[in-house]
């Protein structure tokens, strides 16, 4: 009996074992299928990414040429076109702009759906953000005779989110509100909810409203309320679809409340968020990064040209009175006694005491001076007298300095006058983006102001200016040649990277305009070849493709001028090229490529996740002849060391995502062949225990941020192994 029971039990166990084996085989088969599906999905995403990059380039490039050339025709500078031909060119330009905006919308939507749109969270000041929104839409609301307001009294002081995407969301919502409102008002109100955990931004209009049964449809792609709305107001219905998807990316949503004929309220809700780290090290890291950014903004930068000022000066000297709109200055200036051909500086400052200081400094330099106490007067004086340069404050009564420089750059008569900011605000990057040649943050020294004046006044026209346009598309080269024709520069063309290198080797250049999608050698490779050969040619990357974070990082190590072809890119391109064409011309011995020579050819790995730090340090180190390899985090640093065993020394930031500097140094020291590789740790925290922590993790030495460059170079020399 027991034998039979034992046999039965064995049979049960055998069947169970067989079933388990069968299930195991099925699981293995499913795992293999899942692996295959995952690989297929990965390939599909790669194809999507490549497709988006290629499409953005292939669509934007010909449209960009169309926009440039049609705009050039519409301007009719030679006066040889009939009015109907000018109108036709204007229509072509406007239609091309509409088509380009549609393409950009479709590409944005595709990037979101393909998961190829990154979110970069950073602190965003709601007060400054709301002021920027109000400033951006003020003029459009005035043109449409609508009341427009932005209120942030009940909002949190700061949120942690992607500032660019937040601005894109609200720009879409406000733009829609203004478009669909014929009379009345549009308001934006920032507030908080959920006990301060959620930021709300409500955009309310008194426009046409939306029927209740159509409320859900407005967030679908290519949907609008009805066909008649589309005919009356235009558009494709992509804006709200993109807006909702961007809100989802930020962890929130957009809701709508509307009544037909009474207006609508679109409300964005996103998490307020928290700083990525709350410890002292993170705080000091951020302060150090901001200090470096401010230092870069204050450093001497190339100056733009002053258009010939004698014409304006001659008008003043001939007895013509100033424009009636220009108010009398609170500080006496030279507007009634300008000398033809003199160097004239326009000082725009509402503080009379500081304005007098600036006037005295300008006169001691031997220049003549104009003074404006507000933005409107500044524009009037600039248009009237065409000064050599402008010193501009940001916080002005009425029209602020940001608007002043935007208006100056939008006017062909004043766009080339170099502008240098002197402000209490620390927003050097924004000033640079708007076309300023420099930015000083008050309080400033006399030496700093002297350098600012040098940037404004130093312009040499004793040799021809040369621009190399590198693009394999002949039509695109022609469009850029036409656009830059007004700069009166010699334009040289190259259809490939190899051809460009030949030109660079033979011809002195002031600037290179480079497309990235070249046959053979890519634009990325060309820039790196230029750096390796110590060809210090300013490069403006002018490409139709959307850059990934890694690609942008790769380029930023060599150039800070990247223009993506779009509706406003011709103006941006002209600004960037003009900056280099009319830059301060140093004698070759003043900026030697390798001042000391002892570091030339040495290979260094720079590891940092902050693009500003990477750009600044890489530029300094490459200026000493060092071959600099870049990595954004510890994991990428390990990969670079594996791929490039000839790296001789590492500069390692500590606070990084993915793998921080401590972990990276620990992993490096586990590898026998890297046990003695010199590693200099860079961190914002200068406490004794932090130094000991770095050394314990494997650092050879330690340097606190902000980095003292001479000290860093000495440390590099001390740790580099002898050749």
Give me a quick take on this structure.
By secondary structure, this protein is of the alpha/beta class.
Q: Which descriptors would you attach to this protein?
A:
alpha/beta, 16% strand, 723 residues, five-stranded parallel β-sheet, 23 helices, five-stranded mixed β-sheet, Rossmann fold, 22 strands, Heat Shock Protein 90
Q: In percent, how much strand structure appears in the residues?
A: 15-25%
Which structural category do the helix and sheet elements fall into?
alpha/beta
The largest sheet, given as strand count, sense and whether it forms a barrel, is: 5 strands, mixed
Shape: globular
CATH topology of the largest domain: Heat Shock Protein 90
Low-confidence stretches are 226-235, 277-325, 458-463, 583-596
List the total number of helices.
23
The helix fraction, in percent, is 40-55%
**CA-to-CA gap between the ends?**
87 Å
Indicate the mean pLDDT: 77
The fourth-level CATH homologous superfamily of the largest domain is: Histidine kinase-like ATPase, C-terminal domain
CATH architecture of the largest domain: 2-Layer Sandwich
């Amino acid at each position: 009996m027991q034998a039979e029971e034992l046999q039965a039990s064995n049979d049960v166990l055998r069947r169970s074992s067989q079933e388990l084996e069968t299930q195991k085989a099925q699981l293995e088969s499913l795992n293999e299928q899942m692996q295959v599906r995952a690989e297929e999905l990965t390939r599909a995403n790669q194809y999507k990414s490549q497709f988006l990059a290629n499409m953005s380039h292939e669509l934007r490039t010909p449209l960009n040429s169309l926009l440039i050339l049609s705009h050039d025709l519409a301007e009719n500078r030679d006066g040889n076109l009939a009015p109907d031909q000018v109108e036709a060119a204007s229509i072509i330009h406007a239609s091309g702009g509409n088509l380009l905006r549609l393409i950009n919308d479709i590409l944005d939507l595709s990037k979101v759906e393909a998961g190829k749109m990154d979110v970069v969270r950073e602190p965003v000041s709601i007060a400054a953000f709301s002021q920027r929104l109000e400033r951006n839409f003020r003029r459009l609301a005035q043109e449409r005779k609508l009341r427009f307001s932005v209120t942030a009294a009940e909002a949190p002081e700061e949120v942690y989110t992607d500032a660019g995407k937040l601005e894109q969301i609200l720009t879409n919502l406000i733009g829609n509100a203004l478009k669909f409102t014929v009379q009345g008002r549009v308001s934006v109100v920032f507030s908080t909810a959920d006990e301060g955990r959620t930021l709300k931004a409500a955009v309310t209009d008194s426009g046409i409203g939306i029927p209740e049964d159509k409320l859900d449809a407005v967030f679908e792609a290519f949907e609008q309320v009805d066909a008649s709305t589309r005919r009356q107001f235009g558009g494709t219905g992509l804006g709200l679809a993109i807006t909702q998807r961007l809100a989802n990316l930020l962890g929130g949503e957009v809701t709508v409340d509307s009544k037909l004929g009474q207006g609508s309220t679109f409300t964005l809700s996103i998490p307020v968020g928290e700083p990525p780290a709350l410890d002292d090290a993170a705080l000091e890291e951020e302060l150090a990064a901001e200090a470096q950014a401010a230092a870069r903004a204050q450093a001497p930068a190339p100056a733009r040209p002053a258009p010939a000022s004698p014409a304006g000066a001659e008008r003043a000297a001939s007895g013509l009175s100033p424009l009636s709109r220009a108010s009398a200055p609170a500080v006496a200036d030279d507007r009634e006694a300008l000398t033809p051909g003199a160097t004239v500086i326009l000082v725009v400052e509402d503080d009379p005491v500081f304005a007098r200081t600036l006037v005295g400094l300008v006169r001691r330099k031997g220049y003549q001076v104009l003074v404006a106490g507000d933005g409107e007067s500044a524009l009037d004086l600039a248009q009237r007298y065409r000064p050599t340069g402008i010193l501009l404050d940001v916080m002005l009564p009425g029209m602020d300095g940001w608007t002043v420089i935007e208006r100056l750059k939008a006017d062909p008569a004043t766009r080339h006058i170099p502008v240098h900011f002197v402000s209490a605000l620390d927003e050097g990057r924004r000033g640079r983006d708007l076309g300023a040649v420099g930015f000083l943050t008050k309080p400033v020294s006399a030496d700093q102001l002297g350098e600012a004046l040098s940037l404004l006044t130093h312009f040499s026209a004793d040799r021809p200016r040369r621009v190399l346009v590198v693009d394999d598309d002949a039509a695109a080269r022609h469009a850029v040649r036409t656009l830059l024709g007004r700069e009166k520069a010699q334009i040289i063309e190259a259809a490939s990277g190899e051809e460009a290198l030949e030109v660079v080797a033979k011809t002195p250049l002031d600037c290179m305009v480079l497309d990235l999608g070249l046959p053979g050698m890519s634009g990325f490779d060309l820039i790196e070849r230029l750096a390796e050969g110590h060809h210090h040619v300013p490069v403006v990357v002018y490409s139709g493709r959307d850059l990934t974070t890694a690609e942008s990082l790769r380029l930023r190590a060599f150039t800070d001028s990247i223009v993506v072809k779009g509706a406003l890119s011709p103006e941006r391109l002209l600004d960037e090229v003009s900056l280099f064409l009319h830059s301060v011309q140093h004698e070759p011995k003043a900026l030697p490529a390798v001042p000391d020579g002892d570091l030339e050819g040495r290979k260094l790995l720079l590891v940092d996740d902050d693009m500003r730090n990477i750009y600044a340090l890489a530029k300094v180190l490459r200026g000493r002849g060092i071959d600099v390899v870049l990595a954004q985090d510890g994991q990428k640093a390990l990969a670079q060391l594996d791929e490039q065993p000839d790296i001789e020394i590492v500069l390692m930031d500590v606070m990084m995502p993915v793998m921080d500097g401590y972990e990276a140094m620990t992993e490096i020291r586990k590898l026998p062949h890297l046990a003695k590789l010199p590693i200099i740790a860079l961190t914002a925290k200068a406490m004794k225990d932090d130094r000991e922590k770095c050394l314990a993790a494997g650092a050879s030495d330690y340097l606190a941020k902000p980095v003292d460059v001479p000290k860093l170079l000495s440390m590099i020399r001390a740790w580099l192994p002898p050749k």
